[in-house]
Amino acid sequence: MTTSRITDDMFARIPALLLEGTTKAEIAEMYGVTLGTLVVLCSQRGISLRKGGSLPKRTKLPKRTNLTRAIDHTPAVVFEERKARQAVVFEERKARQAVEYRDLTSEFFGDPRPGYSQLDRRGRA
Question: Deepest in the core among 28, 95, 116, 121, taking most CB within 10 A?
Fold first, then answer.
């Protein structure tokens, strides 16, 4: 096993040199090794060569379930809102069904009733 050119004292000084603004290339030149060698040796020892130091540890976010989701409305309020929207939709459907077809052919082929086609609306705009 070969001995490293960089001693333990040198490794201990690397974080301080980085905080002072010394680049990785300058540190490698100062210690007489190539940049690649410095990166590998520091990686093996767990020394970060980033300027601001090592990145913060990643934390896993909890999985989102129905229990962890924030509830904005009470169920009664949501139910009433849904019921009101359904009433509007049913009224619109009744109004569409009340309009008669133009002729038997349009009824047979399922053409939209008068006033409910994009072609009818184009002339009014």
Answer: 28
